[in-house]
TrEMBL record:
<dbReference type="InterPro" id="IPR045058">
    <property type="entry name" value="GIMA/IAN/Toc"/>
</dbReference>
<feature type="region of interest" description="Disordered">
    <location>
        <begin position="1"/>
        <end position="60"/>
    </location>
</feature>
<dbReference type="InterPro" id="IPR006703">
    <property type="entry name" value="G_AIG1"/>
</dbReference>
<feature type="compositionally biased region" description="Basic and acidic residues">
    <location>
        <begin position="32"/>
        <end position="45"/>
    </location>
</feature>
<feature type="coiled-coil region">
    <location>
        <begin position="261"/>
        <end position="288"/>
    </location>
</feature>
<comment type="similarity">
    <text>Belongs to the TRAFAC class TrmE-Era-EngA-EngB-Septin-like GTPase superfamily. AIG1/Toc34/Toc159-like paraseptin GTPase family. IAN subfamily.</text>
</comment>
<feature type="compositionally biased region" description="Acidic residues">
    <location>
        <begin position="102"/>
        <end position="115"/>
    </location>
</feature>
<dbReference type="Pfam" id="PF04548">
    <property type="entry name" value="AIG1"/>
</dbReference>
<feature type="domain" description="AIG1-type G">
    <location>
        <begin position="293"/>
        <end position="493"/>
    </location>
</feature>
<keyword id="KW-0342">GTP-binding</keyword>
<feature type="region of interest" description="Disordered">
    <location>
        <begin position="97"/>
        <end position="137"/>
    </location>
</feature>
<keyword id="KW-0175">Coiled coil</keyword>
<feature type="region of interest" description="Disordered">
    <location>
        <begin position="494"/>
        <end position="515"/>
    </location>
</feature>
<feature type="domain" description="AIG1-type G">
    <location>
        <begin position="40"/>
        <end position="263"/>
    </location>
</feature>
<dbReference type="InterPro" id="IPR027417">
    <property type="entry name" value="P-loop_NTPase"/>
</dbReference>
<keyword id="KW-0547">Nucleotide-binding</keyword>
<protein>
    <recommendedName>
        <fullName>AIG1-type G domain-containing protein</fullName>
    </recommendedName>
</protein>
Length: 515
């Protein structure tokens, strides 16, 4: 029956099997309104499943061709058609269903300094504008699917979270869906030798058994690695079981409620309108800014001893700032980097745990550093070592410094720049962020998820400097007519008494196109 119990059939058996499918097709010809039975009615299959379940590969196996790209994530429903024993078969592959977040991962109120215990669970990503529900897939196989295949990989756990996802997915289609459902197991080639799919179901747990029973004990198994051969009978066997579903439902197919279809269509139109609005907004921003910037004005901020001076040297490609000792006064330096004129101001470091413990003179220096970047800095680079942990108190102290010194709109111009990037080795920065816990993720959310990582040990040679500048320009475009943070009058007080600069006062960057 399944991939590990197939045997080679004789010519008589194959002929009998083909005759069975053809007779079944002719007996239900009324499905398409052809009462003469000249053409077998089509069969429509809707494929649903979770991430990495093998949906797309299964759809290709049924279609007998690589119609869908199994190497990329499915973001929109796709339709393919083929003929099996003279019958037209329509297959709709859909985006993976979303796995509900674990209630234990939900954010708790941040009421005190101990509320920021770091969590190992990654934050649930926000819903995408392009996300589709299962109704869109049903719309693409009108007037409705004869069978709904719930794809489950034997290599992935099927827990209560997956069960809830399946229920939500089918619930979105309306009532009466389960009698059209069948579980399609993938990856049966990964089963231990001598273990059949029935044993896997029995040994996996009650949740998977519940799914199979909910589908009327209808299931099938695919080995998507098998190529076309005489022994590959898994698709004909699947279609036999689909015919059983059609017979059990007296020839009816599943029809989505018209109200649900209307809501899905309205949602689809809203998504399309939002996409068009965003594209038009991006086009207007490009025209407003007037092309790529020729100058970028950057302000380095952060705790004491985090490597701000080293980061400045890495970006400029030369040892302009004295690293290894505490910065007392703001220092402005300039260089041509990757075809852009980069102006950077290094500032003294803040206290790690409290704004009030940061001396008033240091806070004034931070503001005067911004004033050195007239008419205002494009980006506040918040330097954060990858080797340091971030607690709730540290995060709140960082944000308090930024908002107290530069105002509520400073978040629009702030980017987290991870220093000491060589400590990561081959670990991607995204993996480090997930391991860093909820407090680090909340800091990045405050900054609009703008971040970058630099290896300060290789100044001028790190390709990531160019990527950093590209990322900064992306932030500037996103801010539109607020391309930089305008300097305030109070930042200018006693500027010359505390700051150090190697440029003339009138050299205030007024030639930048981003003004």
């Amino acid at each position: 029956m399944e991939a590990r119990r197939r045997r080679r059939r004789g010519p008589e058996e194959e002929e009998a099997r083909g005759s069975t499918l053809k007779m079944a097709a002719m007996s239900s010809a009324s499905d398409t309104g052809d009462h003469r039975g000249r053409h077998p009615p089509e069969r429509r299959l809707l494929i649903l499943g979770g991430p990495r379940s093998g949906k797309t590969s299964s759809a290709n196996t049924i279609l007998g061709d690589e119609m869908f790209d199994a190497g990329t994530e499915t973001t929109h429903s796709n339709v393919g058609q083929t003929e099996i024993y003279g019958r037209r078969v329509t297959v709709v592959d859909t985006p993976s269903w979303a796995i509900p977040a674990d209630p234990e991962d939900d954010e708790e109120p941040d009421t005190d300094d101990n509320a920021g215990a770091e969590s190992d669970s990654p934050a649930r990503p926000p819903p995408s504008l392009d996300s589709e529900g299962p109704c869109m897939g049903a719309i693409l196989c009108p007037p409705g699917p004869h069978a709904i295949l719930l794809v489950v990989s034997i290599t992935q756990p099927f827990s209560d979270r997956e069960r809830k996802a399946a229920e939500e997915q089918l619930g979105a289609l309306g009532g009466g869906t389960w009698r059209y459902c069948m579980v399609l197991f993938t990856g049966v080639d990964k089963l231990p030798k001598g273990v059949f799919i029935e044993e896997h179901i029995a040994n996996t747990g009650e949740t998977l058994q519940w799914l199979v029973e909910r589908c009327g004990s209808r299931y099938h198994a695919f080995d998507n690695t098998l190529k076309d051969s005489e022994e590959n009978t898994q698709v004909p066997e699947l279609m036999e079981k689909v015919e059983e579903i059609v017979t059990d439902n007296q020839g009816w197919y599943f029809e989505v409620n018209e109200l649900i279809l209307l809501e899905e269509e309205q949602a689809r139109r809203a998504l399309e309108e939002e996409r068009m609005r965003m594209e038009e907004h991006a086009r207007q921003r490009e025209q407003m800014i007037g092309g790529p910037p020729r100058e970028l004005r950057l302000l380095l901020l952060g705790w004491k001893g985090v490597g701000k001076s080293s980061v400045g040297n890495s970006i400029l490609g030369r040892r302009f700032f004295e690293s290894g000792q505490e910065t007392e006064l703001c220092l402005r330096r300039q260089a041509l980097v990757c075809g852009r004129r980069i102006t950077i101001v290094d500032t003294p470091g803040w206290d790690w745990f409290s704004v009030s413990r940061t001396p008033k003179r240091i806070r004034q220096e931070s503001q005067r550093g911004a004033a050195l970047l007239r008419p205002g800095p494009h980006t506040l680079l918040l330097v954060l070592p990858v080797v340091s942990s971030l607690t709730a108190r540290k995060r709140r102290t960082l944000l308090a410094h930024i908002e107290t010194l530069f105002g509520d709109n400073a978040c629009l111009h702030t980017m987290v720049l991870f220093s000491c990037g060589d400590w990561l080795g081959h670990t991607p920065i995204e993996e480090h962020i997930l391991r860093g816990g909820r407090e680090l993720q909340r800091l990045l959310e405050y900054c609009g998820n703008y971040y970058h990582v630099l290896d300060s040990k290789t100044p001028g040679k790190d390709r990531s400097v160019s990527l950093l500048l590209d990322r900064i320009e992306e932030m500037i475009r996103e801010n539109g007519d607020r391309a930089f943070l305008p300097i305030q009058t109070e930042w200018l007080s006693e500027e010359s008494s505390y700051s150090s600069d190697n440029t003339e006062p009138e050299d205030d960057c007024r030639g930048c196109q981003l003004q």
